[in-house]
């Protein structure tokens, strides 16, 4: 086994991947298996480099001394040649050929000066060179000393000509600086894409790594079944653990599984209907944009018409309530089979189509997080379809079934006020998601996470069967609330929904078209990736205002269930834990992606989710 050359904590010069730039970095750790050094740049960016891409500081100082000692003589020789007095004068007027030669020499000198200027621009660290303060002005105090960087880079001919034109233009210097910054940001973005292609392996494992993900594959289904069994008990107290387990043969019924398959493929048929507009998603690592058909709301309307038809012909929809556990088992079995299929097909997928967070090389981890980013069968996008269709719409159908079951079991002509509130609040949430379907294309689920067991189980099992927990609880444990209490809960849900929707709208509109005149009031911090970090509106209030709105709405959904048991509030507790985990994950991802720009954003917006608290 080869021995390592550089020690932890040692300051060295590391080559920026995909370029010839070397920067002063600190060695953080060394992987004995992959033989890669994890180094940290001055802006906080951490990358894994090969030993061949790292050099000692002494070698750079030696090269610098050699270049500095030899360059003056060359410059003086060049200067003496260009200004030699021994050239004979042939009259006052120069010939046309001499004039052209003089212009060419002048143009070459300008190009050389411009090339030197570009070298100085690129000697700055990528994340620092493009970080500006929130008002959009360049921050000169963030630029590092680059005296130890050795760089030889040539400009492309078209860029050289552009520099020449800029030299003779009468445009303000501020406009020229802005153009140079835009060009530099584009170069950095291209470099970052090269890094993603050059190092596709997932180095940082989430969810506890291989052991943690293996435990979650078992823990998540067990949690769903535990919650459903507890809701069936007369006293769903945590002290009554464990609940009585049903016979294994009672958990499976072929007819129930057939109904689930019918529901799944019916939604797939609605997804394939040629209605609704077709939009492009965000650029992938290879620059390609996938196309998506936006027809989720139309599918919801067709589903509602189908449910209304079944009720008209007196179909007993509370069949869902009577076989709720069996439906959950069927959905879990289907999601497991789908996850196995997704992992097998991902083994043949090209590297550029793999998920950045699910390409670790460990079977269990990649199976859980998702190995392939956007698995498709033709134009049918499996992840995008499962994200909003069968599970989210199934949630609404289950809530309706619980409402009808409550009326039948308790011999009521009208549903309880608590059940009406739960159904109404959650229906609004689902309709909003389907109406703003295009916004899901900018979420991490679509742009970053692969499609594996985590999303398959979450979309098809967790969402419909855990999110409907309040309605399922109210069937067996009816809770009466007064109209003033109902009005207060409605106001709370409205506040949460307003924060959630307005924050997401600001973010999605800004991502789609930052130059929209309607968004001119928004201030942002430009970053090296070409994107901006909003520091006004809801995103200047807390870093994740959409999470704040989610938590407020989750609380409003649980309050109609009263305070006799904590079980209906499991969703609130889970949601807080989930969003805190996502927030920490987003923080880490954004710090690596945006560098010093993210640090400036955190100083500008100190609170993460809860203002003045967290």
UniProtKB/TrEMBL annotation:
Pfam families: ERG4_ERG24, LBR_tudor. InterPro entries: ERG24_DHCR-like, Lamin-B_rcpt_of_tudor, Sterol_reductase_CS, Tudor. Its main location: cytoplasm. Residues 60-110 are annotated as: Disordered. Residues 4-62 form the Tudor domain. Residues 66-75 have a biased composition (Low complexity). One of its GO terms (biological process) is cholesterol biosynthetic process. It is found in: Cytoplasm; Endoplasmic reticulum membrane; Nucleus inner membrane. Residues 76-95 have a biased composition (Basic residues). Belongs to the ERG4/ERG24 family. This is Delta(14)-sterol reductase LBR. The lineage of its organism: Eukaryota, Metazoa, Chordata, Craniata, Vertebrata. The gene is Lbr.
